[in-house]
User: Fold these one by one.
Assistant:
Number 1:
Amino acid sequence: MLHIGCHLSSSKGFAAMGRQALELGADEYLTKPCRKERLLARISNVLKRYEGRPNLLEGRGFLLDRQTYTLYLQNRSVVLPQNQGKLLEEISAQELHERCADRLDIAVDDREKYAALLAKHFPEESWRVLPEGTIQIRGFRREPEAYSRLAMEHGLCILGLERKSASLEDYYMNLKNGGKESC
């Protein structure tokens, strides 16, 4: 994930706007006219600030600053309350990747046979059989058609195929609301 610094500039009479921009997550606020050297120095400082910081938890689609509990997500940033920031920090990046990976739910007429086919033909895939018998593939690496083709080529009937997208935001809101489910 790449953090893109946000610099805002305006004419001199807008100090209140600059304060508001910084509160909303801008990294810098400069008034115009601004010397080129000053702008380049500020950009350099922002890049140094984010480069190789051990306090940043980086994941697919998000960045969490562990010192300020600022969550950067989908071109937005929000400062989390300390308890929520600590909760999110305690969840490892790997766990977030696993919980928030897109998934494919496939229902077939013979799940044992299909599970054996998945293990043989797609051994690198992470999948599990859900209690209702549906096979769930997390973070799938192929197009959904590849999984349905595997079933049909081996005489299996597909009863259902559903692609589900997940996000860190879904997972976070679920946790915040007291849930313990995946995204």
Number 2:
Amino acid sequence: MGVLTWNQVQVWHDSEKLWTRVLARDPESYLAQNHIGVLLAEQSKPAEARDHYRKALQIRPDFADPHINWANALVREGKLAEAVEHYQRALQIRPEHAGAHHNLGIALAQQGKPAEAIEHFRQALRVKPDYADAHNNLGNALARQGKLTEAIEHYQQALHIKPDSAEAHNNWGLALANQGQYAEAIEHYRQALQIKPDAAEVHTNWGNVLTQQGKLAEAVEHYQRSLQINPSSPLNALRGVGMGTEEAAPSRKGKRVQ
């Protein structure tokens, strides 16, 4: 779950108490079964969470949310094929669910299927045009296809909707760097770090650009900073990483709807 503030912990415990009480009174509450599943997934108890998602679907088979939550948990476990199946089932129930399209796009991109991922990101944006994360991840998928100009257009859209998106700034910087526009790329890395100072991948990418410019001493400073922030992934400072759907360098980590 990461580090939580006292208020966040209190809200989480209150939610747990609420849904546990509802479930005790009515074991056939599909909403309670689903919410308890989410809470268990947040506690890193995927097997128990699946039991509740399964029960929710037994009670109400046309309820899309348990499929989406189950799929999200499977993605975290690296079980992408199973996750894709659940996202697809959710979309059979609710074809206009923007979050399900977006998350399915991320899973497909992680499977190395950018064309299919792009279609679902576009579907998410058709349903919800102001979906910043979908613009960002669509840009990432397009960048992997070498369509950098179109990718940049979507990063611009993401930042228009969500100006404090460090991810979009970083990814825009990667696209510019791949076009050889190093000064412009550095400006986006700088803005990304103003928003998210502990983004190790941005320091790595900035270091890569400085290396290309022959500014090795400055590059080393950024690589060292990257490793200080994230010492568990030392190869990142040699490979270059991004923020979007996960992939080989330059990689991008995408956000899923929880």
